[in-house]
DNA sequence: TTATACGTACAGTTTAAACTGAACAAACTT
DNA sequence: AAGTTTGTTCAGTTTAAACTGTACGTATAA
Protein backbone atom coordinates (compact mmCIF):
# COMPACT_ATOMS: atom_id res chain seq x y z
CA UNK A 1 0.00 0.00 0.00
CA UNK A 2 2.58 2.57 1.03
CA UNK A 3 4.92 0.68 -1.28
CA UNK A 4 2.59 1.22 -4.18
CA UNK A 5 2.52 4.87 -3.26
CA UNK A 6 6.27 5.19 -3.39
CA UNK A 7 6.24 3.58 -6.82
CA UNK A 8 3.57 5.98 -7.95
CA UNK A 9 5.52 8.89 -6.55
CA UNK A 10 8.61 7.81 -8.39
CA UNK A 11 6.63 7.52 -11.59
CA UNK A 12 5.19 10.98 -11.08
CA UNK A 13 8.63 12.38 -10.47
CA UNK A 14 10.29 10.70 -13.43
CA UNK A 15 7.60 11.06 -16.01
CA UNK A 16 7.20 14.72 -15.14
CA UNK A 17 10.77 15.26 -16.21
CA UNK A 18 9.94 14.04 -19.69
CA UNK A 19 6.86 16.26 -19.81
CA UNK A 20 9.05 19.22 -18.89
CA UNK A 21 11.06 18.59 -22.04
CA UNK A 22 8.06 19.84 -23.98
CA UNK A 23 8.58 23.27 -22.52
CA UNK A 24 6.13 22.82 -19.70
CA UNK A 25 6.87 24.17 -16.23
CA UNK A 26 7.79 21.67 -13.49
CA UNK A 27 4.57 22.18 -11.56
CA UNK A 28 2.38 21.98 -14.63
CA UNK A 29 4.23 18.83 -15.68
CA UNK A 30 3.64 17.33 -12.27
CA UNK A 31 -0.02 18.27 -12.37
CA UNK A 32 -0.39 16.65 -15.75
CA UNK A 33 1.30 13.46 -14.61
CA UNK A 34 -0.84 13.16 -11.52
CA UNK A 35 -3.93 13.53 -13.64
CA UNK A 36 -2.55 11.04 -16.12
CA UNK A 37 -1.76 8.38 -13.55
CA UNK A 38 -5.18 8.74 -11.97
CA UNK A 39 -7.53 6.45 -13.81
CA UNK A 40 -10.51 8.61 -12.98
CA UNK A 41 -11.11 12.24 -13.89
CA UNK A 42 -10.25 14.52 -10.99
CA UNK A 43 -11.74 17.61 -9.41
CA UNK A 44 -9.84 20.77 -8.52
CA UNK A 45 -10.07 19.90 -4.85
CA UNK A 46 -8.63 16.45 -5.37
CA UNK A 47 -5.74 17.75 -7.43
CA UNK A 48 -5.15 20.50 -4.91
CA UNK A 49 -4.95 17.89 -2.20
CA UNK A 50 -2.55 15.61 -4.07
CA UNK A 51 -0.37 18.45 -5.29
CA UNK A 52 -0.24 20.06 -1.87
CA UNK A 53 -0.97 23.41 -3.51
CA UNK A 54 -3.85 25.82 -3.25
CA UNK A 55 -6.91 25.41 -5.43
CA UNK A 56 -6.12 28.69 -7.15
CA UNK A 57 -2.74 27.41 -8.17
CA UNK A 58 -4.14 24.17 -9.53
CA UNK A 59 -6.81 26.12 -11.34
CA UNK A 60 -4.32 28.20 -13.30
CA UNK A 61 -2.22 25.12 -14.00
CA UNK A 62 -5.17 23.24 -15.43
CA UNK A 63 -6.02 26.27 -17.52
CA UNK A 64 -2.67 26.31 -19.26
CA UNK A 65 -2.81 22.54 -19.81
CA UNK A 66 -6.23 22.91 -21.40
CA UNK A 67 -4.93 25.68 -23.63
CA UNK A 68 -2.24 23.29 -24.80
CA UNK A 69 -4.86 20.65 -25.57
CA UNK A 70 -3.28 18.24 -23.12
CA UNK A 71 -6.16 18.15 -20.65
CA UNK A 72 -9.88 18.35 -21.21
CA UNK A 73 -12.89 18.88 -19.04
CA UNK A 74 -15.46 16.10 -18.84
CA UNK A 75 -18.92 15.85 -17.38
CA UNK A 76 -20.39 13.08 -15.34
CA UNK A 77 -24.02 13.10 -14.41
CA UNK A 78 -24.69 13.76 -10.76
CA UNK A 79 -21.31 15.37 -10.19
CA UNK A 80 -21.44 19.11 -9.74
CA UNK A 81 -17.73 19.79 -9.58
CA UNK A 82 -15.70 20.25 -12.72
CA UNK A 83 -13.90 17.10 -13.76
CA UNK A 84 -10.67 17.07 -15.72
CA UNK A 85 -8.82 14.30 -17.45
CA UNK A 86 -5.92 13.77 -19.82
CA UNK A 87 -6.49 12.84 -23.39
CA UNK A 88 -5.72 9.51 -24.94
CA UNK A 89 -2.74 8.96 -27.23
CA UNK A 90 -0.33 11.19 -25.39
CA UNK A 91 2.27 11.01 -28.07
CA UNK A 92 0.16 12.57 -30.79
CA UNK A 93 -1.04 15.28 -28.44
CA UNK A 94 2.38 16.29 -27.26
CA UNK A 95 4.10 16.09 -30.60
CA UNK A 96 1.31 18.02 -32.23
CA UNK A 97 1.48 20.78 -29.64
CA UNK A 98 5.24 20.85 -29.79
CA UNK A 99 5.78 20.75 -33.53
CA UNK A 100 2.95 23.21 -34.00
CA UNK A 101 4.66 25.62 -31.69
CA UNK A 102 7.93 25.33 -33.61
CA UNK A 103 6.35 25.63 -37.03
CA UNK A 104 4.32 28.59 -35.97
CA UNK A 105 7.31 30.38 -34.55
CA UNK A 106 9.49 29.73 -37.58
CA UNK A 107 6.82 30.96 -39.95
CA UNK A 108 6.40 34.21 -38.09
CA UNK A 109 10.12 34.81 -37.76
CA UNK A 110 10.78 34.11 -41.40
CA UNK A 111 8.36 36.85 -42.35
CA UNK A 112 9.69 39.24 -39.75
CA UNK A 113 13.27 38.80 -40.84
CA UNK A 114 12.34 39.16 -44.49
CA UNK A 115 10.70 42.46 -43.63
CA UNK A 116 13.84 43.64 -41.90
CA UNK A 117 15.85 42.54 -44.90
CA UNK A 118 13.75 44.77 -47.14
CA UNK A 119 14.48 47.74 -44.96
CA UNK A 120 18.16 46.91 -44.89
CA UNK A 121 18.35 46.59 -48.65
CA UNK A 122 16.77 49.97 -49.14
CA UNK A 123 19.03 51.92 -46.89
CA UNK A 124 22.17 50.03 -46.41
CA UNK A 125 23.64 48.67 -49.61
CA UNK A 126 26.47 46.23 -49.29
CA UNK A 127 26.83 46.29 -45.56
CA UNK A 128 28.17 43.28 -43.71
CA UNK A 129 24.93 42.80 -41.85
CA UNK A 130 23.27 41.57 -45.02
CA UNK A 131 25.33 38.42 -44.96
CA UNK A 132 24.06 37.67 -41.52
CA UNK A 133 20.50 38.29 -42.54
CA UNK A 134 20.83 35.78 -45.33
CA UNK A 135 22.33 33.29 -42.93
CA UNK A 136 19.44 33.82 -40.55
CA UNK A 137 16.91 33.19 -43.27
CA UNK A 138 18.74 30.04 -44.28
CA UNK A 139 18.84 28.99 -40.64
CA UNK A 140 15.09 29.27 -40.35
CA UNK A 141 14.61 27.51 -43.66
CA UNK A 142 16.64 24.52 -42.47
CA UNK A 143 14.75 24.29 -39.22
CA UNK A 144 11.49 24.46 -41.08
CA UNK A 145 12.55 21.67 -43.41
CA UNK A 146 13.65 19.55 -40.50
CA UNK A 147 10.39 19.88 -38.65
CA UNK A 148 8.24 19.42 -41.71
CA UNK A 149 9.95 16.18 -42.60
CA UNK A 150 8.85 14.77 -39.30
CA UNK A 151 5.60 12.94 -39.03
CA UNK A 152 3.53 12.26 -35.96
CA UNK B 1 24.01 55.26 -38.86
CA UNK B 2 21.42 55.31 -36.15
CA UNK B 3 19.14 53.73 -38.74
CA UNK B 4 21.54 50.86 -39.16
CA UNK B 5 21.56 50.51 -35.41
CA UNK B 6 17.81 50.21 -35.21
CA UNK B 7 17.95 47.51 -37.86
CA UNK B 8 20.62 45.70 -35.90
CA UNK B 9 18.57 46.04 -32.75
CA UNK B 10 15.55 44.60 -34.45
CA UNK B 11 17.61 41.70 -35.72
CA UNK B 12 18.97 41.07 -32.27
CA UNK B 13 15.50 41.13 -30.82
CA UNK B 14 13.94 38.86 -33.42
CA UNK B 15 16.68 36.33 -33.86
CA UNK B 16 16.99 35.96 -30.10
CA UNK B 17 13.42 34.72 -30.03
CA UNK B 18 14.37 31.85 -32.31
CA UNK B 19 17.39 31.05 -30.18
CA UNK B 20 15.14 30.91 -27.13
CA UNK B 21 13.20 28.12 -28.80
CA UNK B 22 16.24 25.92 -28.21
CA UNK B 23 15.62 26.14 -24.49
CA UNK B 24 18.02 29.01 -23.92
CA UNK B 25 17.16 31.82 -21.54
CA UNK B 26 16.23 35.20 -23.02
CA UNK B 27 19.40 36.91 -21.83
CA UNK B 28 21.66 34.11 -22.98
CA UNK B 29 19.90 34.14 -26.33
CA UNK B 30 20.44 37.88 -26.62
CA UNK B 31 24.07 37.52 -25.68
CA UNK B 32 24.56 34.86 -28.31
CA UNK B 33 22.89 36.96 -30.99
CA UNK B 34 24.96 40.03 -30.19
CA UNK B 35 28.08 37.94 -30.48
CA UNK B 36 26.82 36.40 -33.68
CA UNK B 37 26.02 39.70 -35.36
CA UNK B 38 29.38 41.12 -34.42
CA UNK B 39 31.82 40.19 -37.13
CA UNK B 40 34.74 40.30 -34.76
CA UNK B 41 35.28 38.23 -31.62
CA UNK B 42 34.33 40.20 -28.53
CA UNK B 43 35.72 40.68 -25.05
CA UNK B 44 33.76 40.44 -21.84
CA UNK B 45 33.92 44.19 -21.42
CA UNK B 46 32.56 44.84 -24.87
CA UNK B 47 29.70 42.43 -24.39
CA UNK B 48 28.99 43.88 -20.98
CA UNK B 49 28.79 47.31 -22.54
CA UNK B 50 26.47 46.27 -25.39
CA UNK B 51 24.26 44.13 -23.16
CA UNK B 52 24.03 46.82 -20.51
CA UNK B 53 24.72 44.18 -17.89
CA UNK B 54 27.54 43.68 -15.43
CA UNK B 55 30.66 41.80 -16.46
CA UNK B 56 29.83 39.09 -13.96
CA UNK B 57 26.50 38.50 -15.59
CA UNK B 58 28.02 38.29 -19.07
CA UNK B 59 30.68 35.98 -17.77
CA UNK B 60 28.19 33.40 -16.52
CA UNK B 61 26.17 33.74 -19.70
CA UNK B 62 29.19 33.06 -21.88
CA UNK B 63 30.02 30.09 -19.70
CA UNK B 64 26.70 28.39 -20.31
CA UNK B 65 26.94 29.12 -24.04
CA UNK B 66 30.38 27.56 -24.14
CA UNK B 67 29.09 24.51 -22.29
CA UNK B 68 26.46 24.16 -24.99
CA UNK B 69 29.15 24.34 -27.69
CA UNK B 70 27.55 27.41 -29.19
CA UNK B 71 30.38 29.81 -28.39
CA UNK B 72 34.10 29.27 -28.32
CA UNK B 73 37.07 31.18 -27.04
CA UNK B 74 39.65 32.35 -29.55
CA UNK B 75 43.11 33.84 -29.24
CA UNK B 76 44.55 36.73 -31.13
CA UNK B 77 48.18 37.63 -30.73
CA UNK B 78 48.74 40.83 -28.90
CA UNK B 79 45.33 40.81 -27.23
CA UNK B 80 45.40 39.98 -23.56
CA UNK B 81 41.68 39.86 -22.93
CA UNK B 82 39.72 36.72 -23.60
CA UNK B 83 37.98 36.77 -26.94
CA UNK B 84 34.81 34.89 -27.69
CA UNK B 85 33.02 34.16 -30.94
CA UNK B 86 30.19 32.06 -32.27
CA UNK B 87 30.86 29.01 -34.32
CA UNK B 88 30.18 28.63 -38.00
CA UNK B 89 27.25 26.60 -39.32
CA UNK B 90 24.79 27.56 -36.66
CA UNK B 91 22.25 25.05 -37.76
CA UNK B 92 24.38 21.99 -37.12
CA UNK B 93 25.49 23.34 -33.77
CA UNK B 94 22.03 24.08 -32.50
CA UNK B 95 20.40 20.96 -33.82
CA UNK B 96 23.19 18.84 -32.48
CA UNK B 97 22.94 20.38 -29.03
CA UNK B 98 19.19 20.18 -29.06
CA UNK B 99 18.70 16.68 -30.39
CA UNK B 100 21.50 15.46 -28.18
CA UNK B 101 19.70 16.82 -25.17
CA UNK B 102 16.50 15.07 -26.15
CA UNK B 103 18.15 11.76 -26.94
CA UNK B 104 20.12 11.82 -23.75
CA UNK B 105 17.07 12.52 -21.66
CA UNK B 106 14.96 9.86 -23.32
CA UNK B 107 17.66 7.24 -22.88
CA UNK B 108 17.99 7.94 -19.19
CA UNK B 109 14.26 8.01 -18.60
CA UNK B 110 13.69 4.78 -20.46
CA UNK B 111 16.10 3.03 -18.14
CA UNK B 112 14.66 4.67 -15.05
CA UNK B 113 11.12 3.74 -15.91
CA UNK B 114 12.13 0.18 -16.74
CA UNK B 115 13.69 -0.07 -13.31
CA UNK B 116 10.49 1.12 -11.70
CA UNK B 117 8.58 -1.38 -13.78
CA UNK B 118 10.70 -4.20 -12.37
CA UNK B 119 9.86 -3.15 -8.87
CA UNK B 120 6.19 -2.85 -9.69
CA UNK B 121 6.09 -6.31 -11.25
CA UNK B 122 7.65 -7.89 -8.20
CA UNK B 123 5.31 -6.43 -5.67
CA UNK B 124 2.19 -5.41 -7.34
CA UNK B 125 0.83 -7.97 -9.75
CA UNK B 126 -1.97 -6.90 -12.00
CA UNK B 127 -2.42 -3.40 -10.70
CA UNK B 128 -3.77 -0.70 -12.98
CA UNK B 129 -0.57 1.27 -12.72
CA UNK B 130 1.18 -1.28 -14.90
CA UNK B 131 -0.83 -0.23 -17.90
CA UNK B 132 0.36 3.28 -17.45
CA UNK B 133 3.95 2.17 -17.13
CA UNK B 134 3.72 0.36 -20.41
CA UNK B 135 2.21 3.42 -21.99
CA UNK B 136 5.03 5.53 -20.65
CA UNK B 137 7.64 3.23 -22.10
CA UNK B 138 5.89 3.27 -25.43
CA UNK B 139 5.70 7.05 -25.22
CA UNK B 140 9.45 7.29 -24.79
CA UNK B 141 10.03 4.76 -27.51
CA UNK B 142 8.01 6.81 -29.99
CA UNK B 143 9.83 10.01 -29.11
CA UNK B 144 13.14 8.26 -29.50
CA UNK B 145 12.18 6.94 -32.91
CA UNK B 146 11.03 10.34 -33.99
CA UNK B 147 14.26 12.05 -32.99
CA UNK B 148 16.49 9.35 -34.38
CA UNK B 149 14.86 9.54 -37.78
CA UNK B 150 15.95 13.11 -38.01
CA UNK B 151 19.21 14.01 -39.59
CA UNK B 152 21.22 17.14 -39.14
C1' DT C 1 -36.51 33.16 -2.54
C1' DT C 2 -32.61 32.13 0.54
C1' DA C 3 -28.77 29.39 1.30
C1' DT C 4 -24.86 26.56 0.01
C1' DA C 5 -21.15 25.05 -3.10
C1' DC C 6 -18.05 25.87 -6.53
C1' DG C 7 -14.81 28.33 -9.85
C1' DT C 8 -12.24 32.46 -10.74
C1' DA C 9 -10.21 37.27 -10.12
C1' DC C 10 -7.20 40.01 -7.45
C1' DA C 11 -3.88 41.96 -3.92
C1' DG C 12 -0.42 40.65 -1.19
C1' DT C 13 3.15 37.41 0.07
C1' DT C 14 6.56 33.96 -0.46
C1' DT C 15 10.13 31.78 -3.15
C1' DA C 16 13.41 31.35 -6.73
C1' DA C 17 16.16 33.37 -10.36
C1' DA C 18 18.95 37.09 -12.29
C1' DC C 19 21.98 40.46 -11.42
C1' DT C 20 25.55 43.52 -9.11
C1' DG C 21 29.80 45.29 -6.73
C1' DA C 22 33.54 44.32 -3.97
C1' DA C 23 37.19 41.30 -3.03
C1' DC C 24 40.40 37.68 -4.51
C1' DA C 25 43.66 35.13 -7.64
C1' DA C 26 46.29 34.50 -11.61
C1' DA C 27 48.73 36.33 -15.39
C1' DC C 28 51.02 39.88 -17.67
C1' DT C 29 53.97 44.40 -17.71
C1' DT C 30 57.49 47.23 -16.32
C1' DA D 1 60.17 42.38 -7.73
C1' DA D 2 56.08 45.53 -7.44
C1' DG D 3 52.19 47.13 -9.88
C1' DT D 4 48.34 46.47 -13.42
C1' DT D 5 45.04 44.15 -15.77
C1' DT D 6 41.72 40.58 -16.30
C1' DG D 7 38.64 36.64 -15.07
C1' DT D 8 36.14 34.62 -11.46
C1' DT D 9 34.01 33.83 -6.74
C1' DC D 10 30.76 35.14 -3.39
C1' DA D 11 27.37 37.74 -0.36
C1' DG D 12 23.89 40.62 -0.82
C1' DT D 13 20.35 42.85 -3.58
C1' DT D 14 17.01 43.46 -7.09
C1' DT D 15 13.55 41.60 -10.06
C1' DA D 16 10.32 38.34 -11.71
C1' DA D 17 7.61 34.23 -11.07
C1' DA D 18 4.82 31.12 -8.26
C1' DC D 19 1.72 30.74 -4.81
C1' DT D 20 -1.96 31.84 -1.22
C1' DG D 21 -6.27 33.53 1.01
C1' DT D 22 -9.98 36.47 0.75
C1' DA D 23 -13.67 38.07 -1.79
C1' DC D 24 -16.85 38.02 -5.52
C1' DG D 25 -20.07 35.97 -9.05
C1' DT D 26 -22.61 32.29 -10.73
C1' DA D 27 -24.97 28.14 -10.49
C1' DT D 28 -27.31 24.51 -7.97
C1' DA D 29 -30.21 23.01 -4.03
C1' DA D 30 -33.63 23.60 -0.57
Automatic annotation (TrEMBL), chains A, B:
Superkingdom in the source lineage: Bacteria
Alphabetical UniProt keywords: DNA-binding, Transcription, Transcription regulation
Family: Belongs to the GbsR family.
Identification of the protein by name: HTH-type transcriptional regulator
Amino acid sequence: MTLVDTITNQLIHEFSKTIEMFDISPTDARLFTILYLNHQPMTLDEMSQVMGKSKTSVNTGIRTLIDLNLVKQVWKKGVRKNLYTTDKNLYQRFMQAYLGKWRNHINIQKQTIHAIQEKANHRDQGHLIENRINEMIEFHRLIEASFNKRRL
